[in-house]
Specification:
There is one protein chain. The protein is α+β, with helices and mostly antiparallel strands. It has one domain. Helices cover about 45% and strands about 15% of the residues. It is built from two helices and two strands. The protein has a two-stranded parallel sheet.
Length: about 70
């Protein structure tokens, strides 16, 4: 599972990044989960982190890793 975090998607930069991720994954069979934040700030990042942690608890995939 891949997770894209960004927001709001109405921002051109975020929309462009999401479009690029979707294009890169097209035909790969990979599952993309999109977590949209209300704002590109610390509070939005923390909320997204909590959502990712919740996904990891319900996923059968290995936990996400940072590289």
């Amino acid at each position: 599972m891949l997770v894209f975090v960004g927001g709001p998607v109405g921002l051109n930069q975020v929309a462009d990044r999401l479009k690029g991720v979707k294009q890169a994954l097209r035909g790969s069979g990979a599952k993309l989960t999109v977590i949209e934040t209300e704002a590109p700030n610390v509070a939005g990042g923390r909320e997204a982190g909590e959502q990712i942690a919740g996904l990891a608890k319900t996923s059968t995939s290995p936990p996400p890793r940072c590289r």
